[in-house]
Write a structure and sequence with these properties.
Layout lengths: L10 E7 L6 E12 L4 E12 L10 E6 L8 E10 L13 E2 L2 E2 H11 L44
Parallel strand pairs: 3-5
Antiparallel strand pairs: 1-2, 1-4, 2-3, 4-5, 6-7
């Protein structure tokens, strides 16, 4: 069986997805694969587990991970290096400006000044930082577990 392409690379950029592993996070890595019949590249997703004992990344974060010199387990082959972009806070790496849906926030604000701002428009400057809804509506920080049987109790964090 051939090795996956993601396990051959030393540094990868991936998006964190939900995982039930202890001390590890799961990442979705998008790569382009050449179709030799059409001579076109198509997107392919691979999943990699990375060692993350401090749980510094949350679901949806874009994270830089690096390959470990030796495998920790059969699945865990990489380690989390740093969180590049937290979820919902995308920054253009060249200009350093914040981006919203493919447009700079400055541009969106200037257009709103010219044409008038909508009543229910979201105000990015007044918005609280990510994580303020923990234990209210955001339960991504809570450790989940697999429910093997119905106990009759309410298990909000069971999968």
């Amino acid at each position: 069986m051939a090795l996956q392409a993601a396990t051959k690379s030393s540094m990868l950029l991936g998006r964190c997805v939900p995982s039930l592993k202890q001390n590890a996070s799961k990442f979705k890595i998008k790569r382009l694969e050449l179709d030799t019949n059409l001579l076109m590249y198509f997107g392919k997703e691979e999943f990699v587990y990375a060692y993350d004992p401090n749980k510094i990344c949350k679901t949806g974060d874009v994270v830089l991970i690096e390959q470990l010199p030796t495998r920790m387990t059969r699945l865990i082959t990489h380690a989390v290096k740093k969180v590049v972009y937290p979820l919902g806070d995308i920054t253009d790496p060249i200009t350093g400006k914040k981006v919203v849906a493919g447009k700079y926030r400055d541009f969106v604000e200037s257009v709103n000044k010219v044409y008038g701002e909508k009543e229910g428009a979201f105000k990015y400057d007044e918005a609280p930082p990510r994580g303020w809804q923990e234990d209210k509506k955001d339960f991504t920080h809570v450790e989940t577990y697999i429910k093997y049987h119905e106990s009759g109790k309410d298990d909000p964090y069971a999968v």
